[in-house]
């Protein structure tokens, strides 16, 4: 077992994911974990199946962090970790923490480094053990950096095993102690050989067993669906009712489909008091669902979205879905607001209000007091984040989901997807018979087009962005790029540019097109190729011709980091 200590990086859970991918079991714990308390299996974080494979820690990985090691409130590791005799790998902040504690020097860089960098590997002929980290790799490799500090002096006993143009201590190692430190992030997919580096560490250096299985389809087919349906039935019981928000996205749809399979089609059951014997009796009455899906139209959805989600989930999948048109309320509250975080908060809070009112109506219809459960499509990365040492990692954006609902509504949570990663949810969707179109749908953020209309969100601005986006996605699908691109959308910029149409001068707005490739949405690269550029030209011309108010289209070529996928 590999112990990963989380210092709050955006990417900590990806380390877990990558290592489990090649069959090594690992656990992620907050960096404040006291090492002396780890004689016992930590409770409540992973399921029993996982604990069966636990045989003691063979190595420790220290994650990255948004902090600087010299910040007064920065998190620090229990230094006992360095006395266990097991290999330790520090990643980014983890390297800086090791260097700082062992007598090296860490300083703010003159040039903060985000994105791709070429890492030059230095092999040591006389010290084969420290070469193991880059075993199978030679010369320069592409790595992903995201740091503001760097090591400027290695601690005694450490040797340099790789450098970049700006980082002379990009990777270091201590031969006798088996300590390694790397400045780049091997866990993100944009470090092309990141998997090899992590594998070299846990398998080559730490000799961890590769017997942990996480073969997606097998795991899902053999155990997941049936077990989960049974679990839901047991939790909800014969009379329980469940509400859940759906958006048409893959997570909420898969969760809703599972719930529908479990309790969507059963007889309504009532508890009656028997006059003769005094016992409670369960009476089955007419067929009725116990699952109520709610789709809130917030006025900032994509073109025809509500109708098509209703058709897909309701008519095609048979899910009991209620569409609430609250667009006027949302757009009214967004009037005059330009700050991205305020937009997100307004949409999040209004969503809760509308959802609760609808749930109360449904509760009344079903007799009152019967709705006890709330379905949520929480995924495994969210679960890991909530065990971090200071809650979730640094807030970059307040992601809107239904997380705020629980406290106010006093509903108990059911989260059938909480052990799964996104690609596993997609595999599950396919196994449950969902259409490919739904399973492979690009993600769409809760605050919708409101965060894709930069500046004030007015109905007419939403209309422009919506139409441009529709044309963009339609052309992407027509050209066969939809599955290759991880996420694409059109954003409307709050600037005007001069153009010429017919013989007249125009002064109109600009549409920015975004298309990224990513595996996990934590890091992303622009989607680019010469052929794609030709498609973009066609799309640009269609948008300018068909969308009134737009005379210019630009393509966003930034990577994440330093940009994010959404503009706001
Ligand atoms: P960023 O812009 O943070 O986006 O790079 C990463 C992924 O998250 C999506 N996103 C959201 N999803 N509610 C959501 O459900 C939100 O508030 C939200 N904000 C961003 C974004 O579309 C991308 O897939």
UniProtKB/TrEMBL annotation:
**What UniProt keywords apply to this chain's record, in alphabetical order?**
ATP-binding, Glutamine amidotransferase, GMP biosynthesis, Ligase, Nucleotide-binding, Purine biosynthesis, Transferase
UniProt-recorded Gene Ontology molecular function terms: ATP binding; GMP synthase activity; transferase activity
Record-listed ATP binding positions:
247-253
Query: Top-down, what is the taxonomic lineage of the species of origin?
Result: Eukaryota, Fungi, Fungi incertae sedis, Mucoromycota, Mucoromycotina
User: What name does the UniProt record give this protein?
Assistant: GMP synthase [glutamine-hydrolyzing]
What InterPro entries does the record tag this protein with? Class_I_gatase-like, GATASE, GMP_synth_C, GMP_synth_GATase, GMP_synthase, GMPS_ATP_PPase_dom, Rossmann-like_a/b/a_fold
Summarizing the function annotation, the protein's role is: Catalyzes the conversion of xanthine monophosphate (XMP) to GMP in the presence of glutamine and ATP through an adenyl-XMP intermediate.
**Domain of life of the organism in this record?**
Eukaryota
GO terms under cellular component: cytosol
